[in-house]
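Ligand: calcium ion. Inputs:
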Amino acid sequence: MRIHVLIGCFCWLIFSQSAQSQDLWPRGVNYQIFVRSFCDSDNDGIGDIKGVISKLDYLKDLGINGIWLTPINVSPSYHKYDIVNYMDIDPEYGTVADVKKLLEEAHKRGMHVLMDLVVNHTSQLNPWFIESQKGKGNPYRDYYLWSDKDQKKDPKNWWPVDKKKGEPSDTIRYYGYFGSNMPDLNYDNPKVREEIIKIGNFWVKEVGVDGFRLDAAQHIYFEDEHDKSRLWWQQFRAEMEKTNKNFFMVGEVWNVDSIVAPYLKKGLHSVFNFDLAGTIIKSLKEEKGDSLLIKYQRIMKLYKEMDPAYVDATFLSNHDQNRIITELHSDKLKAKLAAAILLTLPGTPYIYYGEEIGMNGKKPDEQIREPFLWDAEASDKMRTKWIKSVYNPEGAIVPLKSQMVDNHSVYNCYKKLIHLRNRDEILRLGNITPIPVKAREILAYSRQYKGKTVYVIHNLSSKATEVDLSLLFKGKLTADYNNGSEMLNKGKILKMNPYSSVVLK
Ligand code: CA
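Predicted complex:
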């Protein structure tokens, strides 16, 4: 290839583009796709892998560097967090070949793909569990946790078996933390560990995924056995790194920071910061920013003691929580403010699909996973139809296509902020220092990297306010992002509209 000048130039272009993208990964902006609801390529009403492929250019343009796909393995449920076959793709979503194509196309664009790995439990219909129920002596018996006496650990989650399935005794029960349809695997059984490593290797080595989002990572063992769960993930990581030293995993450890922190010790590269997400929402609801950074810095200190290079996975809400804009009473200004906070804090932000167009959603779960609105219903060929939208009916949310041409849309706010973050390494990689201000409704911080600084100021209140910049900074600053404020008195006073943000340099 080097011989041919034209091809050589082309290769250099590809190389320089991917070198730039490599620089972002794993610290760029990520996007969580609930596959069923995202984009339907074959008009059967169900989102699919080919649909995701068709939207890679959209995501690239938005500035996305990594994609987390919610589970795509074979599963009887709509959400697929209960797997029957880990080595294949659910036919509703496509094939392994489609996933390979997705990876090829994503990598071509400098984007990375994380698969959801759901291995704390399986489906009740998994062949391993069907065998396991046949009684003692079955080779799959110890793939799961069985007990014939009253259990002290988590007693409410031990389930009886239907006698027709083969289990002869009424007293014998199996363990399922998330319910009787999701029996927990037994990680004290080396064969189970072998199976899961085989599954991991298949997707990382044979198919080429960039890593995993680990579902229920803290539930591998019982609640008083976090150390055992943590050591399992260390083992899994070491095995995957034999195949790909850049392999990456981000864990769902939905717990308080002191429980989460040890998982970072040579184990998970990254964990979702549920504490921070909750604190951002609380601050926005109470319109007070003063406690956010105190809490955040305490978490950071704890996590960095475990791994100085750890990657903080930040987010506002995910597929298990009410959508952010619904939490903020569908106030678009507040949605933009939430985005501005998320995208100017340290960490690697994850945006939940639809968040960037201000989609609404409130539990039950199906209603926080509603179809993405690409275009007005009559002309939206790619909209999924597997569920009726309750919170995003026609007319309630402006679809993406119209938001793209509206400079003041939630979408364009997200896009501006993501691109700002992508081109500014200070926002991506810098430290954070609170800027003390008297007004509790003001959230202000500086970010520093390699001797350079940017200043971020948010007004969390419904009232306009003025910030005296001359008390805080020396020299003249210019705005890199400004969503509703103006400089007065030769740049000394910053007049901020309600729920506005500014990034100054
Ligand atoms: Ca489909």
